Amino acid sequence: MKIAIDAMGGDFGPEPIVEGVIKALKQKNFIAYLVGDEQKIKPLVPKEFHSKVRFINSEDFIKMNESATEALKRKESTIYKSIELLKQKEVDAVVSAGHSGATMSLATLKLGRIKGIKRPAIVTFMPTIKKAYSLVLDVGANVDCDATNLYQFGLMGEVYAKVVLNKENVTIGLLSNGEEESKGNSITKEAFKMLKSKFDNFIGNVEGGDIFKGEVDVIVTDGFVGNIVLKTSEGVADTISKLIKDEIKSSGLLQKIGALLLKPVFKGLKKVTDYAEYGGAPLLGVNGCVIIAHGKSNSKAIKNAVFQAIKYTQNDVTNKIQESLKVH
Description:
This protein is of the alpha/beta class. Helix content is 45%, strand content 16%.
């Protein structure tokens, strides 16, 4: 298996990205195509891994403050070259922690959509009280959606959930402002009818709090609401962590001893809420495997994003979505 990695696009430069790729190479058998400034990235790769690494030189990359449309003109940029490798079938997947808008635009325009899919969607993992994950999509690819888009997000989410959650009977819910069928806006009400008529495993409307209960596997929403949910969840997790730390610092000796005893609990909580545990968000609906990693990804996140790319490709998710369209 061959995977192209945009080595320059992340917030912290090539070091954590290359380090994450090396960690992945230690555990999985694949060829890494590192796309970036060869003079900067080659010294970061230990010589014993050179046989498993191909260097694709690119000194240009799309910065986070630049427009996504810039990527369409910058043919020498890291993400353009990475997507081009996938389009030409020289690699099986692309992983990027760079400009997500640029990655989405290039993937959609150059790879094209799966036949029948109107719009691609970004799917992300949310922690639940059952120590498992639920999948939410879309979380940022489409600000405005119609009912057909939402229905297709449910279809794609079901296919991917079966692969990553290792569950055959995947439940689907539609994010709304109440559980009753009468709740929602005109678009979600229409989407409700479509999902209900097409899926036996559609459980109806779900509220924001249900995302974290683990009772529903796939939660469908548009990219505007989904992105707010994602950013709010990250902010809440970060705030709770800081509040706990501040409370411990200002507490007495007995409380500090208690906190030390609870250290394994805090460690477990961090693991469940840490985005680095799943690595990245697949762009579902394009003709190929594209994993969008967090801009602030550390080496662990990159390693797990690569693992996601491998799992996606091995399970032939793109063709499974195509086949699912025929069934539904």
